[in-house]
Amino acid sequence: MTETVGTTMPRIGDAAPDFTAVTTHSQAMKFSEWQGDSWVILFSHPADFTPVCSTELAEFARRADEFAAINTKLIGLSVDSIHSHLAWVENLKQTLGVEINYPIIADLDTKVAQLYGMIHPGESATVTVRAVFIIDPKRTIRAIIYYPLNAGRNIDEIYRITRALQAADAYACATPVNWRPGEKVVVPPPKTVEEVAERLSHKGKDYDVKDFYLSLREQKVA
Question: Does residue 53 have an active-site annotation?
């Protein structure tokens, strides 16, 4: 994958831009190589040694095993230096008792932040907003969430939407409002008159049919 540099904001369905960067785990990490066959949650924070960001990074670290169990890697980013990152990681260990066990990108030149549209001038021209990119193993951006500087992220929701995307892929389905792992999924709507009739008749299907266009089922591989 060739590396690109630009200011166009990526969208859902786009290929995740590749890059090489300095991180707390490597002096030259190639993103695509580091990702391998995993899902990735790439998230930015405004600045090291700030209170809201500290709570977020600590919570991601506390739940890293949960994400690892669903084949998902975590990686953070801000425009601080590697020295600042390393000092902050040690400070969080001492202050909150949490080991930050995932890499944090030191993006001093804002190269990666620009690639991913993480700097929103209306919010701040000098630091990244709280962006979240969920990237699948094919390196396609599957979800994007932005939070302002003054509101911390909901890690429960980031975990939930990752599981929902994985379920959609595994079961050829969609997920309804407030879906949680293990709950019923949405069956794709019928595409022909015959399929509409079949759906309404419930023939041979273990569906919870609300109407021909809205049916639910247990999670079963399609």
Answer: yes
Q: What is the pLDDT along the chain (222 residues), one digit of tens a residue?
A: 444 444 578 999 999 999 999 999 999 999 999 999 999 999 999 999 999 999 999 999 999 999 999 999 999 999 999 999 999 999 999 999 999 999 999 999 999 999 999 999 999 988 999 999 999 999 999 999 999 999 999 999 999 999 999 999 998 999 999 999 999 999 899 899 988 888 888 765 788 888 889 999 887 654
CATH superfamily of 20-154: Glutaredoxin (3.40.30.10)
Domain boundaries, the chain: 20-154, 172-217
Long-range contacts of 219-222 (CB under 8 A, 24+ apart): 219/167, 219/170, 219/171, 219/173, 219/182, 219/184, 219/185, 220/171, 221/170, 221/171, 222/171, 222/172, 222/173
Find the catalytic residue in 21, 22, 53, 75.
53
Q: How many CB atoms lie within 10 A of CB 172?
A: 12
Write the class of the CATH domain 172-217: alpha beta
